Structures are given as C-alpha cells and as structure tokens.
Amino acid sequence: MRRKSCLPASDPAKGGLPLSELYFDNAATMPSSPTAINAALEILQGGYGNPSAAHGAGLRAEARLREARKQVCALAGCREDELFFTSGGTESNNLCLLGAVEAMRHKGKRLIASDSEHPSVLEPLKRLANKGFELVLLPTRGGVLDLKALEEALNEDTVLVSIQAVNSETGAAYDLSAVAEILRRRQSQALFHTDAVQALGKIPLQLSRLGVHLASFSAHKLGGLPGIGAVYVQKGCRISPPYLGGGQENGLRSGTENLPAIAAFGAAAEEARLQWAYRLENAQRVRQVFLDRLSGFEQVHFHLPPHASVYILNLSLQVLPSEVMLNALSAKGAFVSAGSACSSRKKSAGSVLRAFGAPASQLDHALRFSFGYQTTPQMAHELCDLLVELFLSR
Amino acid sequence: MRRKSCLPASDPAKGGLPLSELYFDNAATMPSSPTAINAALEILQGGYGNPSAAHGAGLRAEARLREARKQVCALAGCREDELFFTSGGTESNNLCLLGAVEAMRHKGKRLIASDSEHPSVLEPLKRLANKGFELVLLPTRGGVLDLKALEEALNEDTVLVSIQAVNSETGAAYDLSAVAEILRRRQSQALFHTDAVQALGKIPLQLSRLGVHLASFSAHKLGGLPGIGAVYVQKGCRISPPYLGGGQENGLRSGTENLPAIAAFGAAAEEARLQWAYRLENAQRVRQVFLDRLSGFEQVHFHLPPHASVYILNLSLQVLPSEVMLNALSAKGAFVSAGSACSSRKKSAGSVLRAFGAPASQLDHALRFSFGYQTTPQMAHELCDLLVELFLSR
Prior knowledge:
The structure is a homodimer of 394-residue chains.
Chain A: E1 22-23, H1 34-45, H2 56-76, E2 83-86, H3 89-103, E3 110-114, H4 119-130, E4 134-138, H5 147-153, E5 158-162, H6 176-185, E6 191-195, H7 207-210, E7 214-218, E8 229-233, H8 259-274, H9 276-294, E9 300-302, E10 312-317, H10 322-331, E11 334-335, H11 351-356, H12 360-363, E12 366-370, H13 377-392
Parallel strand pairs in A: 1-11, 3-4, 3-5, 5-6, 6-7
Antiparallel strand pairs in A: 2-8, 7-8, 9-10, 10-12
C-alpha cells in the first residue's frame, strides 16, 4: 500500500493530475487535463484582448472564442448558435430555469422535475414554488425516472420540465428521449431542460436530436477548468436572461468572455470526443474492479441503476458512518465522497439515495467513487485494498 | 516607429504581456500578471480538489481559498466575512442590485443611480423600472456627481442607490463618501452599492470606512484572470441572491469555487497593494506624456474630470470617426478603444461622454487610453508618435 503525501506538488511537469494517485472524486471536480491547461496558458500569455474590443487583440480573441465554441458543440451535438458560455453548472441551471420561467410567465404555473436533481436545480425551483408556482417532483426509484408520473403530472398549465441527464451521486442516466416524446405527443407548451453536467463527455449526447430545449454544462467535470460552463438553447427557443449587461453571448450571458477557460473547455471537449472509446472502456474496467472485488462482502450494497454513466459508482459500506470512512481514506491519500460534493460540506446527504429507494439503514454509509480520464484499474485495485484493509477485514 | 506583428506569441517566458507593445486598453482587460498566472497554475497542477469536498484535497483547496480571500480583502479594506467571490463584474453588479431590491421589496420602489453607469448596472435597473420600479438617474456633468440632485431624488421610498466608484470611459472618480454622508444624514433606508470594477487597485478604497453597503469587483481589470470577481457585502447587510444551489460563499454565491482564478485574484490583489506607489507614479507619468504631447493640437479635446483615476484618459481627436482611427491604430499594433469595451462592439458609444457634457460634435471622435502595470512612458511616447503621424500631421 502506498502512503500519499498531502502537500501540494510544485512540479509543473506533473500536469493537472492531483498529487494523490487515489483520487476518486472526479464527479466533484476532475483534474484539468494538461491539454486544457495549455490552451488556457496560450491565451493568458499570448496577447489576447477583450473579445468585445474592436482592435486586433480583441478580434484575435473573438476568433479563438469561435474555435472553442465549435469544439464544445462537436461534443454536445448542437449548432454553434445554440451554445452560450457561462461561469459553470450552477449558473447554467439557474439561467435556464429562471430564464425559461420568466419567458413563460403568462403561460402557466406548473413546474416538473425529478426528485433527484442537483441543488442548483432544486433550490431555484423550490423558491419559485414559494412564490406561487406549483412544483411536482417525479420519483426516480431504482434510478429510473417514473414516466407514468410524468404523464399524470403534465397538464396544460405546465411551463417547465427539468430532468437531469445523469445523476451525480448514483450515475443513473434518465431516459430524456422518452420525456421529450411524451412532451411532443401531449403537445405540451413546456420547455424541457436537462442538467447535463455529469453527462457531457460521459454518455452520448446528440442535443439536436434529443428533443430538449435547454441544457446545462460544466467544464471542470470533464477535465476543463473550473469557473466555466455553457448552456444549450435550442434554435428558436427564447428564454429571458436574469442578469443583464454588455450583451455578450448574443445577449444571453453578459460579462467579459472568460477566454482562457473557454479555450480550455474547447480543448477538454475535443479531447473527450477524440478519446471517447478509450475513456469509456477504461472507466468500465475501473468500475468492474470495484464490482468484482467488493461484491463478495455482505457489508457492501451497490446502488446500481439499470442505465448509468460508467464514470460513477455508488455503494453503501455497512461498517462505519460515511464521514468516518471518508476521513480514514483521506488520511491514506484516497479521496472519495459520500455524495454530491457540489453542495455544502455541512448539509446532510442521503436525499438522492432515499429517492433511489435505498433502505434508511444504508443512507449514512454511502460512498461514491467517480472516475476520470486519469483513473486506472490499478488505482481501483489499490483503493479496494485500502477499503478491505480499513473496513472489511474486521 | 516599430511595426508590430499581430500573431499570438507562443513563448511562455513572455508572461501575460500582450504581444503588442502598444496595448492601451487595460480598462477593457489587463494582461494577467505572471504572478497571477503562476498562482493559478499552482492550483491547476498541484492536486487541489473541490473546496466543498470533505477529503484532504478539498480541505487543502479550502485553505487556499481563505488565503486568497485575505489577499483581496487587504486591498479592498474589508473583513474576510464581507467578501464573496463571483464570476466577474457583471455578475457582481447583477447579484448586488437584484439581490438588494429583492431583499428590500416591501420597503419602496425608488432606485437611484448615476447617468454614467456601466451597462451591467444600467440594464438591470432599466428592467426593474419596466417592472414597476422608479429609476432616477443623477447627472455627472464634467465628471462630477450632482449631489444636489441626489438630495432631491432621495425620498422615503428609495431602496437602492448605485454610484460607480470610477467611470470606465473618462476615469471620473465620484465622491462616494459624500453620497454615504447624505444617506446617513437623511437616515435613508436605501442600500448603497458601488460598481468598483475600475477602482480596485487603482484608487484607494477603504470599504469598511466608506459607508457603502455593497460593492462589485472584477479581477481581470487589475491583472488577475478573467472569469472571476467579487462582491463586498457589509457585515449585517442582507441581500437575497438571485441564483441558488449548493450554498457556497456563505449561501450568497452557489457554484464550485473557481479556485485557480481565485488564487490568481489574490495574487494580483497583493501585487497591486505592494506595488501601489510605483504603479501610481508610473501611470501618472504615462498620463502626463499624453497631456504634454497632445495638448498643443487644436484638434485634441481632453475630457478631464476634476477627480479621476490616473489609469484612464479620454480625449476627442477631431480628425476622423473613432472607429476609423481605432482600425488605423490597430493595423500598426496599437490597441486603444473608443469607450467602454465591456459592452457589445456593435452598440453606439457616446452616452457617457454626452453625460459628461462633451459637445455632440466630439462624441464620434473619442479615444480612450487606459494603462496597466506594464505600460511605460516610452510606450506612451510611441503611441503619441503614431497619433501625430497618422492623424495630426495633415
């Protein structure tokens, strides 16, 4: 068993890999890939101006912006005039949801979402509910969206349906095409939004064919930099941006374009697209190590949705509370999480697993392993060794 | 006269300086300082996690976040529990204005601002005006805020006063202390916000003593990275954040913290604080070159406020339209702007200069020169040579 140091590395040649070689929290944040870092550095050191400036440095910046947008669109499967850069997943979700509801404000009061959404979807919707909207949450028991419940909830008053593409805790991939098909068949006026933060680069997305009107992305979940994301707004669909200013991103998202991070997003998206098959197979192998090595223990309960991103694996380890296990693993340089790390560390977890249908006794014992381009099956074996040594060998 | 290449540099040893040695558009975006870039790189390559994660990589990230916050607070003159990171100036302004109005929504309908605010202040206020609020704009003729007009406009119904600290086009520094004093004397309930994007690192700010409740900052205007900013919220003052999610930044600004850019913001702020006297004197010398060399020409009209940031200089050059001069200068590798470059390139400029009181005939001939830590008096001489050669030698 290797023992990891907790001091930050200072060697730039290391690239974006975290020091710990047992980093299994890529769904919280994935180390920026060296390619992405270099793309950002090239902008930072290359004499680019404000993309809204009229001089040469500004025009150069604008051209670079176009190139990056193209790269992200190629991965997301949408047109370049349908993708707008934001500061990340949380802003993207709020922008889409509040922007859609504002644009539809005279058309109805019902909002529909799954009961497993990320806080950056659930919290804005709950506040809207407090302001007179009617929020219906659809069950996701077993990691499957209840489409019958959607049929029942969907009425003429419905203005928004928001269903995540991949759940950040269990990896469950919901059937967005089926949702779109129901909305179409019922001739619903509702705008269909998906939080695709854990999906981009992980499961195939062909936005233009999927039938969603709005989608949210975050770059640092696929090896880009933090602080950058994007929204997809289907051509012809209009939302009303909550924040206003200089009118950048076709008026949808004002503020000086974050060119270094946008260039890195483009590079990371291109990398994810070109390495798709390799990364997928690698993640499957990593995942299989955990399934093979831990299935035999009666204290281990996997939470396995029928359709899932292979980059996320959730289990309950019926030995100690999650937090105690997290700390013990962290002390050995192995970084995993108990659930969504995007929300405050202090908040009690478990609501997604409860929705999944996990017994109450398992909620406080959950561990989430999430994989990235840099995760190897060997690392998975080492983490399993640690889990056995610390928790499963009595 | 040097002729500049317009190709981006590829040599990382160059640091963040733009290729053109005649970059005079630092109010639009200032090249990231090498120190700031290195601070970001250290995070990107050093194995930091999501600051909200409970493991070692997360805790390390959280500690680094605290250090950067301290560095920015030292420059802004406020407490660490009063500063919250955002994605930039536009988000900061929208967050403060919409958040304040929402928090005060049962207390009144009048909003007061100067007539020279940045679009990221003016546009949100105009939309509120369309929704039933009453917006009063105070004159800033000659670059001086009309305090009598403030006295007249301020009534019991006033919930918000927003006055920028430094105007981005003329450099005019408005008297925020006098505004605060009037609000105090009149025992106004109004929240006082200042867009301090062009002020931080340029004019002395002691937020805790200034009497403002809310302030907005942007890192890339002082040598940090784009895509990061901050808001100051005075201890005890409550605003209601428009966007919700994981509850980061004490619930005020949800979303994974952009640690690389935050670390770079801290480094740039510390650099600005430590080099304060040197940078100020340097900018004064740069500014003086333009005043000395161009004052003699009858085609040149300086727009000089009585109190101003020395980092911005605005003049009208009564020879050709701004855009033609901009392009001619750009072709020679000299990058200046006609006004605020933060807003869309396409929008007609001139509203700030009109508010300043410049004659209509001068509005289409404005040039703004804005200076940064890397601007030298020698560069100012070279730009003056160019201006004379291109436009002033008939």
